[in-house]
Amino acid sequence: MLNPYYALITDQRESGEALPSIEIAAKIAKALNISLDYLSELSDTELDSILLSRINEITSLPDEEQKQIFTVVDALISDYKAKKVNSK
């Protein structure tokens, strides 16, 4: 499995589509607690390990905190999808 972030950026670059904004990439990197440079070079195993670690951290939080995190994640995903649709 490809690193989904690297695959997304590569696919968009090759197809001529707009790349994710630096703000979105920075938010992804911040959420994963990694640098933007590292994000662009992740292997599948490293990404899976990071995501699993973050999911474990989230599930250890109180329910209200989990809801807030998922609200932010859902908003970021919706924003990305809207931008993708509007850019066509």
From TrEMBL:
Domain HTH cro/C1-type: 14-39
MF GO annotations: DNA binding
Organism: Mucilaginibacter lappiensis
SUPFAM superfamilies in UniProt: lambda repressor-like DNA-binding domains
UniProt protein name: Transcriptional regulator with XRE-family HTH domain
Pfam families per record: HTH_3
